[in-house]
Design goal:
mainly beta, Porin, 5 helices, 13 strands
């Protein structure tokens, strides 16, 4: 098996088995294109003074397990912000659209009375490592391997598809061959797993999937492990939202939100 998620091939990116989805062998896990889009946006902006502050990805079609290309467009370039768009295309069709907001940091003194979140505990080195396959997909013998079986997972809480979960995650492979995973790439890829960590089962073999990802970063995560404290809220209409705090071992570094919608859990 390849040890990367994507191989560059000219102006295209060819996915490997590590980028696959649990839903169908012909599709990619949402975290794989999220990490790829973050990489392309970061490379396009290419200004070390600017920090990625927001990433929004609309997953407008299932991302196929096929060669992908990325079309970039500068929306706004100012003294303090840059807004960049990236369209992910497969076979001439746009399958996802991402916008990345890059901001020039300005140092401030945060007052003691400012709201704050407690660090996520216990830290990953104190927890046992398991697989998403065993935690969420144990009853599905036909589930294909992919990113969900590649990602390293150390749960803090029991992940029982109850709509709330806490866990640390780490990616052991490069997203793009020949490139080191940046903190922004790791945060983007991990953000997609908010739905998995906070998965809500509706019964009758129906779960919730996310149609988008919005990641807002206060600072770039440091270290190998990124933690998620995720909650899924759903209305009888079937529409819902996943929200998550995103942590590193030093504390809170960002927030995630996703639009959630019902889907049969294991499509064949």
């Amino acid at each position: 098996m390849s040890e990367v998620l994507f191989h560059p091939d000219g102006d295209r990116f060819v996915p490997t088995a590590l980028a696959g989805s649990p839903w169908h062998p012909a599709l990619l896990h949402g975290g794989a294109p999220a990490g790829l889009l973050a990489h392309c946006l970061e490379q396009s902006v290419a200004d070390p003074r600017l920090q990625p502050s927001r990433l929004t990805i609309d997953l407008i079609r299932p991302v196929p397990n096929a060669p992908l290309s990325v079309v970039l467009r500068r929306i706004r370039s100012g003294k303090r912000i840059v807004l960049e768009e990236a369209q992910l295309q497969a076979g001439g069709k746009t399958v996802a659209i991402a916008t990345g907001l890059f901001v020039l940091p300005q140092a401030v003194t945060v007052p003691d009375y400012a709201p704050a979140r407690l660090p996520l505990t216990p830290p990953p080195h104190q927890l046992q490592e398991v697989s998403f396959r065993d935690v969420l997909f144990a009853n599905n013998d036909n589930m294909p391997p992919g990113l969900h079986t590649t990602i390293r997972l150390r749960p803090i809480s029991t992940l029982a598809e109850s709509g709330r979960g806490l866990a640390w995650l780490s990616l052991p492979a490069p997203v793009v061959e020949g490139c080191i995973n940046s903190p922004f790439m790791r945060a983007a890829l991990t953000a997609d797993f908010s739905n998995g960590v906070g998965q809500l089962s509706l019964g009758n073999n129906v779960g919730m999937i996310n149609a988008d990802i919005t990641l807002q970063l206060f600072r770039l995560p440091q270290g190998e492990w990124i933690g998620l404290d995720a909650t899924t809220l759903v209305q009888p209409s079937g529409l819902g939202v996943v929200t998550a705090d995103l942590h590193d071992c030093d504390g809170l570094c960002g927030l995630v939100s996703q639009t959630a919608m019902p889907m049969a859990e294991f499509a064949s």
